[in-house]
Design brief:
The chain has 204 residues and is an alpha/beta fold. It contains seven helices and seven strands. Helix 1 runs parallel beside helix 7. The longest helix is centred in the C-terminal third of the chain and has 17 residues. It is globular.
Length: 204
């Protein structure tokens, strides 16, 4: 992609903290560096700090109803999901700022995944199993952990995010991690240097 072409980024932030968040700081730094190298950058931000509605029985019923048969109420039930999927569909690059909470992802991020993983929208069932429909996109996961090393036996966050992205067709995924920040004072600084290197690589 030429630097004169528009690069659309979906910036998803899952930290409950808007101030003092390492993942938000790293994401902001990454996007600023990317903007410098790619002036035509367009950013769509989806902040999950206030949470998202969870999937309910009403939502499931609406989702499994064929589109042509849905009532106005069912369409309204799926409206947020449709919007979130439209944001994904419009993006070339997805940036996910996701701190590790209790060995996994924040509940709001899990809710986001539940709302965008929809058959016939972002994946389809085939004779060979599920096939992701959002292919050709790239993702960057930016995470921070208090005491758990990334890819440790009890890291249920980063493998889950990789799998969830691959399920909907996004397999080109980079990971930047500020690991064990409660015991490693330099972890966030090293991660910020990684975001700069990654921004240069993506812009190129």
């Amino acid at each position: 992609m030429s630097n004169n072409e528009t690069l659309t980024v979906l910036n998803i932030q899952a930290s409950a903290r808007r101030a003092g968040s390492i993942t938000r700081d790293l994401s902001d730094s990454f996007l600023a560096d990317l903007q410098q190298r790619h002036p035509s950058l367009r950013v769509i931000t989806r902040d999950l700090a206030d949470g998202l509605p969870f999937v309910t029985e009403r939502w499931v019923q609406a989702n499994f109803t064929p589109d042509a048969d849905r009532t106005a109420e069912q369409r309204e039930t799926l409206a947020l999901s449709d919007t979130l999927i439209d944001e994904l569909d419009a993006a070339d690059l997805i940036v996910i700022g996701a701190p590790m909470y209790n060995f996994g992802v924040p509940a709001a991020l899990k809710a986001w995944i539940d709302l965008v993983a929809r058959a016939r929208k972002t994946f389809e069932y085939t004779a060979d199993g599920p096939k992701g429909l959002l292919q050709g996109k790239r993702a960057v996961i930016i995470t921070a952990t208090g005491g758990v090393p990334v890819n440790a036996e009890v890291d249920f966050a980063t493998p889950y995010l990789r799998h969830a992205l691959a399920f909907i067709g996004i397999t080109d995924v980079d990971l930047v991690a500020a690991e064990r920040v409660t015991v490693d004072a330099d972890a966030a600084g090293r991660a910020k240097l990684e975001t700069k290197t990654l921004a240069t690589r993506i812009a190129a």
